[in-house]
Amino acid sequence: MSSMDAFWKRFENKKKEGGRATPSSRQPFRIVKKEANVSAEDSGGGSEVQAVDPDILKKVKKNKRKRIQIKNDDYEQLMMLSVPVRFPQGMSLYPTQKLMIVRILAALKNSQNVLGESPTGSGKTMALLSSTCAWLKQYIDEKRESKEKCAVHGNFMRHEDDEDSKDGIKKEEDLAKEDIKPVIGAAPKKKEDLFEEQWNDDFIPHSPPTAAIVKQEVNAEVKKEAKPEPVEQKTSECTCLPRVRIYYGTRTHKQIAQVVKEFSRLPYANIIKHTILASREQSCIHPTARKQPDISQYCKEINSANGIGCTFKTNMRPRFEKAAPMRDHLQNNGTVVFDIDEVVETLATSYPQLCPYFSTNRILTQDADLIFCPFSYLVDPLIRNSSDVTIKNSVVILDEAHNIEDTCRDAASFTFTEKEFDDSLLSFRLKRIAIDTILSKNTAEEELAQMEDFSITMKEFRTHLLYLEHLVLEMLRWVRQVAQHAKTPPKSRQEGFKSCTMSSDNLFASLTDPENGIDLFTPPQSPKHAAIAASFDTITRHNEPEMQAMDQFKPSSTAIVCIEKWLYFQTYFGNQQYQTTYRLNVSVEPVNYSGRFNNTFDGDSTMNTSYSATNRTRNSAGPRNMQYKEENAWVQEAENDGDEWIDTDSSPTGHKAIFEGCKTSVSLWCMSPALSFFDAFSETRSIILASGTLCPMDTLKTELGMEFKQQVEGDQVISPDNIFAAVLPIGPHGNRVQCTFRNTSDPDSPFYSEVGSIIKYVCSNVPAGILCFLPSYRVLEQLKTCMTRNLSMKKIETKKVVLFEPRRSSELSNVMDQFDAAIFNPKNFGPTINGALMFAVFRGKVSEGIDFADDRARVVISVGIPYPNAMDDQVNAKKSYNDMNSKEMGILTGDEWYTTQAYRALNQALGRCLRHKNDWGAMLMIDERLERQTGNLQSGAVSARVSKWIRAQLKSYPSFKTFNASFREFIERQHAVVKKEELEDEI
Ligand code: SF4
């Protein structure tokens, strides 16, 4: 019986015995003091086989995984810039890949940065991985030699070698910590303590890197050492090379899974150790935790000093607190190269069952040389500083980096809602009152005084709560003041909507307004910033024995995140170099209005990217939670139920709504990506930005504010015969087609009937998968209505299963399953069905990160040019910022930037269908304005926006008849080739 079968048998038996294998009902969130007889279920299990989230078990049953055979001895090798680069046996590199590898190796050797643009299907990921892994392998050898020769660590190394080989991490950890955090004036900690500290540190939301906190920490260290210990005199300098890790960032876990698949093919798997960083929402297996609206908070609570604990975490002690046994455990369960789903499924069903979150984020990071993670772990300061991410000396790869500017601007932008402030105020106040109540009984302090090791009294804790309570009150006063400037925009389509965007000077003035009792400009060097940071530090300290008694008085996560965001904003805004990049936006929205939240691109859109009012105003925790919410739509659902502003009199704090019946929010928008990009990556060894659509590269470099000495633009590897690219300026009925707001607003416009007819024509003539991208959900809905009304949808449904991109991320995988099923088993859907048609929106979930190779997409139809919404305040603020600074900073003008945004999104969507060298497909662009992208009209450097490799094939057709002839010829030729190949296979 295999171990998996044995597991299932035990699991089923357990269910029959006590019914504890799956939770019968949702358990309320509560904190229970540790007791001897805590039930197994409450603690996440507690018996031999523990209940895990049933959805994970369903996935395990569905995805029967095969053991991966690692063939590290079976490879081909090329010497490139004196580095042996290995590839899978039988693989030959494209010239584009070779060029990219050489440029990356040159950059890594000289600590330089790289910009790499390479079309989809040209082997970009393989080039990125093989070059960096080859260089790192060589570097690790050099580093080992440097340690052996090091006067400080050489002897020590030899002495510890045996132990090193057992756990594989101790020396690396010590040296890495020395590299990263030199301890000022403090005696070095014992090696054994380092891990314990890291473990206990799991639940500490790290405070911002402010001078005050550093100073405070140093003072604390000095205090602790009232009697200074003799410091070992070092007679020699350390000559060890620093530890270098590779961070491979992409936008989503789906993309990470694809990159990991490529990594598993390389002969570096198992030589270069890897791990994945993922949130608890992605990786927690505790059945009760998974049902909570805030899994992280629940996890922290149950694992806190007074919590009931989680058996999946407890099972890790002590053996699996080290990376080497953890890797052995995974390997013994058939998992060597893993993505997040695989590691979750393995650890949920292994024996013992272990927490995947702590395993991947805390344990495997100890010895991992290659760390895969979503962008936010690298770019967002709040997430980066609360994770085990060590950017210094690392090599950072940002794949699919075409949106890096937006991502960076988002990372340094912060939104606060009136309700968020009021909730924070309430939380600070309630906790303070709780202490007041206890203190008034005059017994608690006496009790606490008898406790060993407590260093903070309730009175001190109360002082910090009160200080932050007053700070939030001051913030609310500030919001009330700035909100008075909000006006109804002239072209507002929303009743009661008000907005206002102010310059950085006005923002500064609003923060320093003594007349209204506002003194909120607190740069990092200021005493007030230090005081806020000190209070924040105190109320967020977790798991320290002396703080355990204070756990019950800690404020809500909303309150903590609110102060944390404020501290980060002040740290950035306090930097004079970047102060002028900030804009203050006030937005007032009636609570019952829902349309506004979908109005962003081209008059309205969708989106999970920059300039989305959806994210900015609904996201109470600011950019930090974006990734989290994208991946967990149920959080959005929960928020949608509870994020509305309460009525005037219902706030328990007594706060009176600034505008009755409206939700008021303030956004602090950063206009320059350079701020957070420099903050994140200035200490890396090399940063590599790669994508199929990075152009224009020159302005990208200037916007990001860093030097990229190595640059590469790869060529398309797919034969021109396999690519059909057309602009359709005219529809089958002879009307010119232009996807403007005016045309799309009119349901009777010929625009919809022409677009519908083109889609119907394509679906009737091309089997397999068809993708159709529209500028917004509004246009998509309208098109659907028109096509239903004129029966073209009905006709399409005789050939295709018609699907629509869901608005919620959680629903995407179901839709994709149906899409695949209709393509690969069409007869299950009806005798005439030959594939599927998917309607989606530009910049949406389908437009990037999903591989539509071969039959999954034979035609991509794009409708319109996806310009950002010209009515969006942030878009306009960015345009005028660029206009003001384009000459001085060498960045694009506002209009150029605006157009670039549109074409990057268009190119991304078009790139869905051509995924590898032998793939073929057609790209049909419906909009007469795109004629300028073809050779039919004069195309200069400015107007040529469609990707170079598409433009080479791009033709505009003066009539639908001429298009029809060419398109049919292309499709028939491709099918003839396919049929011939199939015939040859049979012979
Ligand atoms: S994240 Fe891990 S430790 Fe936390 S509740 Fe989930 S399984 Fe337990």
From TrEMBL:
<dbReference type="Pfam" id="PF13307">
    <property type="entry name" value="Helicase_C_2"/>
</dbReference>
<dbReference type="InterPro" id="IPR010614">
    <property type="entry name" value="RAD3-like_helicase_DEAD"/>
</dbReference>
<keyword id="KW-0547">Nucleotide-binding</keyword>
<keyword id="KW-0411">Iron-sulfur</keyword>
<dbReference type="InterPro" id="IPR006554">
    <property type="entry name" value="Helicase-like_DEXD_c2"/>
</dbReference>
<dbReference type="GO" id="GO:0003677">
    <property type="term" value="F:DNA binding"/>
</dbReference>
<keyword id="KW-0479">Metal-binding</keyword>
<dbReference type="InterPro" id="IPR006555">
    <property type="entry name" value="ATP-dep_Helicase_C"/>
</dbReference>
<dbReference type="GO" id="GO:0005634">
    <property type="term" value="C:nucleus"/>
</dbReference>
<keyword id="KW-0347">Helicase</keyword>
<dbReference type="Pfam" id="PF06733">
    <property type="entry name" value="DEAD_2"/>
</dbReference>
<keyword id="KW-0378">Hydrolase</keyword>
<protein>
    <submittedName>
        <fullName>CBN-DOG-1 protein</fullName>
    </submittedName>
</protein>
<dbReference type="GO" id="GO:1990918">
    <property type="term" value="P:double-strand break repair involved in meiotic recombination"/>
</dbReference>
<dbReference type="GO" id="GO:0016818">
    <property type="term" value="F:hydrolase activity, acting on acid anhydrides, in phosphorus-containing anhydrides"/>
</dbReference>
<keyword id="KW-0067">ATP-binding</keyword>
<dbReference type="GO" id="GO:0003678">
    <property type="term" value="F:DNA helicase activity"/>
</dbReference>
<dbReference type="GO" id="GO:0051536">
    <property type="term" value="F:iron-sulfur cluster binding"/>
</dbReference>
<keyword id="KW-0413">Isomerase</keyword>
<keyword id="KW-0408">Iron</keyword>
<dbReference type="GO" id="GO:0046872">
    <property type="term" value="F:metal ion binding"/>
</dbReference>
<dbReference type="GO" id="GO:0006289">
    <property type="term" value="P:nucleotide-excision repair"/>
</dbReference>
<dbReference type="InterPro" id="IPR002464">
    <property type="entry name" value="DNA/RNA_helicase_DEAH_CS"/>
</dbReference>
<feature type="domain" description="Helicase ATP-binding">
    <location>
        <begin position="83"/>
        <end position="455"/>
    </location>
</feature>
<feature type="region of interest" description="Disordered">
    <location>
        <begin position="12"/>
        <end position="53"/>
    </location>
</feature>
<dbReference type="InterPro" id="IPR027417">
    <property type="entry name" value="P-loop_NTPase"/>
</dbReference>
<dbReference type="InterPro" id="IPR045028">
    <property type="entry name" value="DinG/Rad3-like"/>
</dbReference>
<dbReference type="InterPro" id="IPR014013">
    <property type="entry name" value="Helic_SF1/SF2_ATP-bd_DinG/Rad3"/>
</dbReference>
<dbReference type="GO" id="GO:0005524">
    <property type="term" value="F:ATP binding"/>
</dbReference>
